[in-house]
Amino acid sequence: MRLIGITTCFAITLLAGQAIAADPEQKAEVAADKAEVLEQKAATKDSVERSPAAKTITKSEAQAVDPAGEAPLDDAITCLSRTIYWEAKGEASLNMEAVANVVMNRLGHEGFPNTICEVVKQGSEQGACQFSWWCDGRSDHVEEDAPYTLAKEIARKALNRQLTDRTDGALYFHDRKVVPDWATKYIKTAETGKFLFYKPRASDSATR
Question: Its Gene Ontology molecular function terms (predicted)?
Fold first, then answer.
């Protein structure tokens, strides 16, 4: 009888451990599914008022995605988080939020793809990436946990449409330390401590 009790307890403990281990994976799957729906709504510019409400991504769900910062870039949360991280890690959250704004503004806009990962990777096939970190030849794995945790939280809010657009609709940006030729073609919309932001003039196309 005692042996049966011990065996039963062991089985319960084992099952509980498996459930705990599986929980982050389940949260990550749920987050990816929600993100895909939110991404599609953003790409088609569905207004919150006239479209059915999509389920928002929770903090714990977003943080369960790509926990080690080494996953392939093939889902919206990872692609957006990694872009925020590499473009503005170590900077004030304002800069990180503004990078997220540009990615979301590009999503589905004329001249830009309809998924976040495609937006981030755009131009790599010609060797002229829109976001330089994606094809700079270096590892894309995360190096610092805290900035990546913040990047994922900002990505979550951006996908949930809970993030203020600090760029006033910008589609382009550059570091203050550089002055690219293309900047003179567009209207400057906003500035942060690290970046300058731009959008096309009314008569211009959305490509450069």
Answer: hydrolase activity
- Is 121 a member of any domain? yes
Dihedral angle of Cα 22, 23, 28, 34, to the nearest 10 degrees: 130
Indicate whether 207 belongs to any domain.
Answer: no
C-alpha count within 13 angstroms, C-beta hemisphere, residue 160: 16
Tens of pLDDT, residue by residue, the chain (208 residues): 444 554 444 444 444 444 444 698 999 999 999 999 999 999 998 765 555 667 999 999 999 999 999 999 999 999 999 999 999 998 899 999 999 999 999 999 999 999 999 999 998 766 678 888 888 778 999 999 999 999 999 999 999 999 999 999 999 999 999 989 999 999 999 999 999 999 998 855 544 3
Enumerate residues 6+ apart whose C-beta is below 8 A from 130.
119, 120, 122, 123
Which residue type, as a one-letter code, is found at position 36? E
Global pTM reads 0.84
Domain that holds residue 10: 2-199
